[in-house]
Amino acid sequence: METSRAQHTPATAAFSSLLGSCIEWYDFYIYGTATALVFNTIFFPSFDPLVGTLLAFGTFSAGAIMRPLGGIICGHFGDRIGRKSMLVWTLILMGGATVLIGLVPSYAQIGILAPICLMVLRCVQGLAFGGEWAGAALIAVEHAPEKREGIFGCFPQMGSPIALFLSTGTFSLLALMPKDGFMSWGWRIPFVGSAVLIVIGLIFRLKLLESPSFVEAAARGQIVTAPIKAVLRNDLKRVLIGGGVVLCTTVAFYVQAIFVVSYATQTVGAPRQVVLNAVLIGSFFELLMLPAFAVLADRIGLKPVAFFGAAWTALFSFPFFKFIDAGTPFSIGLGITLAMVGISALFAVLPAYTSRLFDTQVRFTGISLSYGVASGLIGGLTPLLASSLFIWSQSSWPIALYLVGIGIISMVAILASPALGKEAPAVATVEAGSLSSQASRI
């Protein structure tokens, strides 16, 4: 009984969500970094560098588009059989696809099959990632003590900068290799090597106990048979609001931490090592800011912190590119680090913010839809859109303007959010007919 209670502690749940989230984000980020650095020549060699990069980011976006579908599937089962089961499956799917990407032969070896295999595996990654974020967020938030949802919900978010630091750091070290070695096999090491992290993550996730909120709902017979139907019927407005809140931090990150790698190296002409080091500095700074903003949110409220993050991103959009265009190691590092202020403020509060928008019975589905649509259908297309806008204009101003617009959308969504009480919306929002004592249990 003592072990069982220990595994139910908020600290254990928070650490488990952090570890699993870190591994999932690591798998995700190494793909984004490899897309910016090598995929345009490894898998699309017959095109000029800019078009090759555009096609490479197309495969990146294809995976992101799969997120809403992954969110729907994982949300359905996460609200019916539990959060833990989905977290185990998303880690297996994401990890397996990542390792296989590292083993895909190049275009020179198997021709058109190479980018096709890359696309399929990327879609599997997107499918898994669509359910991962919601599950990790809920495990942390639903175990959290009252009035501490912000800081405990921040733990899975901290997996993102840690993973960015690890992935970028790995590529930064590999970039020291001779170029031929790096391009032929060196870039594969982070993908294949992630198998070790996956095994570690599975060990911890299999030991984790189910969310207390879900266990209580199941014990009361309050399991919804069709969560997606209930959410779309009763909580569509909240899904849209949640998506609007998520949008800014996701889009900003894709521009200011992912797209910027290819922009700074190919357009500005900055050395690859300089840009990777700048992203490393930014990710370390983000790791420090996330818990600080989460603690602040627990004290003054989620909305003020979220609004600050969206406003900062909108205001800093044009200055960001000025810093990057200056082309010096200091200006690039400072630009990315300052961009992380807005990203961190909003990202830190997302788990607690989106969780409070939905009732326990449909929470996995609700926040999966909000996050999947915003980060997948819109955010995930951002690197492709940013590349296209630059090819069209040969300038960064349309990309900066796009960021301003996204920031405004998130600010409006935050202002339009309902009161974020402990259990909002009320249980009454779930149709009585959807609740059954014969419903599925753990």
Short description:
The protein is mostly helical and 442 residues long. The protein has 19 helices and 2 strands.
How would you describe this protein?
There is one protein chain. The protein is mostly helical. The chain has a single domain, classed as Growth Hormone, Chain: A, CATH 1.20.1250.20. The protein has 19 helices and 2 strands. A two-stranded antiparallel sheet has the order 1-2. α2 runs antiparallel to α10, α13 runs parallel beside α17 and α15 packs antiparallel against α16. The longest helix is centred in the first third of the chain and has 33 residues. The radius of gyration is 21 Å and the shape is globular.
Structure keywords:
Growth Hormone, Chain: A; globular; 19 helices; disordered C terminus; 2 strands; 442 residues
What is the CATH first-level class name? Mainly Alpha
CATH homologous superfamily?
A: MFS general substrate transporter like domains
Give the mean pLDDT: 81
CATH topology: Growth Hormone, Chain: A
Q: Beta fraction of the residues?
A: under 5%
Give the helix/strand layout.
Blueprint lengths: L1 H6 L2 H33 L6 H17 L1 H14 L2 H19 L5 H4 L2 H31 L5 H26 L4 H6 L4 H19 L4 H8 L3 E2 L2 H8 L1 H33 L3 H29 L1 H25 L2 H27 L7 H17 L2 H12 L3 H20 L18 E2 L6
Antiparallel strand pairs: 1-2
Helix pairs in contact: 2-3, 2-5, 2-7, 2-8, 2-10, 2-13, 3-7, 3-17, 3-18, 4-5, 4-7, 4-17, 5-7, 5-10, 7-8, 7-17, 8-14, 8-16, 13-14, 13-15, 13-16, 13-17, 13-18, 13-19, 14-15, 14-16, 15-16, 15-19
